[in-house]
Design a protein that fits this description.
This protein has 196 residues and is of the alpha+beta class. The chain has two domains: 93 residues, 3-Layer(aba) Sandwich (Aspartate Aminotransferase, domain 2); 98 residues, Aspartate Aminotransferase, domain 1, CATH 3.90.1150. 43% of the residues lie in helices and 15% in strands. It is built from seven helices and seven strands; from the N terminus they run αβαββαααββαββα. Strand 4 and strand 5 form a beta hairpin. The chain is globular.
């Protein structure tokens, strides 16, 4: 990130999306606060959608130099966040038990899902967020599109990522125990030929 920033002209704004920062427990990760504090053309953004579980309220925040934040305040809508969303955001900041529980749940199931799905013959890209990138074989009946249709018919909605240049992949978000076990069982059925 520092190398990317160093190569930018000073008039270009680097926006660091740190939406999954709370899930990262490794010590080789910096969310971007330090870079945003040290440079006038860097903003780090965060969200309440992930670890706080408030996605439908559309709450987020940014950290950057005063002149950038001032410009953002001048272009945003005057009432861009309602009072209920603000109250929920404040309450979620005080709910340390929820955050700790979400981190522990994610750590357990992210590893379990990766191991189980890799064992089925689906490539899993390592992740430190709350989702996995699954890459399917390029063969008829086993493609990402085939898997997506198979899983959707069973109530498991994964995100197709072809628009991101990954046509053979699907994104799986870590869910609750029942959903995690169900999606693995359905993937096992699909990979055994249940989708053809």
């Amino acid at each position: 990130m520092k190398r990317l920033h160093a190569g930018l002209p000073s008039h270009a704004l680097l926006v660091i999306d740190a939406a999954y920062a709370e899930y990262v427990t490794r010590n080789d990760y910096a969310a971007g606060v330090e870079l945003a504090a040290a440079a006038d053309n860097v903003v780090m953004t965060r969200t309440f959608s992930k670890i706080h579980g408030l996605a439908s309220l559309r709450i987020g925040w940014g950290y950057g130099s005063a002149h950038v934040i001032d410009a953002l305040n001048r272009v945003r809508g005057p009432f861009n966040l309602n009072g209920a969303a603000q109250a929920a955001g404040v309450a979620s900041l005080a709910d340390a038990a929820h955050i700790e529980g979400a981190i522990a749940h994610n750590a357990r199931w992210l590893t379990w899902l990766a191991e189980q799905i890799t064992g089925l013959g689906v490539e899993v890209t390592p992740s430190v967020g709350n989702f996995l990138l699954l890459t399917f074989p390029k063969e008829s009946g086993r493609s990402a599109a085939d898997a997506d249709a198979f899983l959707s018919a069973r109530g498991y909605i994964l995100r197709a990522v072809a628009a991101y240049g990954l046509p053979e992949s699907l994104r799986l978000t870590v869910g609750g125990e029942e959903a995690n076990k169900g999606v693995v069982a359905s993937l096992a059925e699909f990979m055994r030929g249940g989708g053809g």
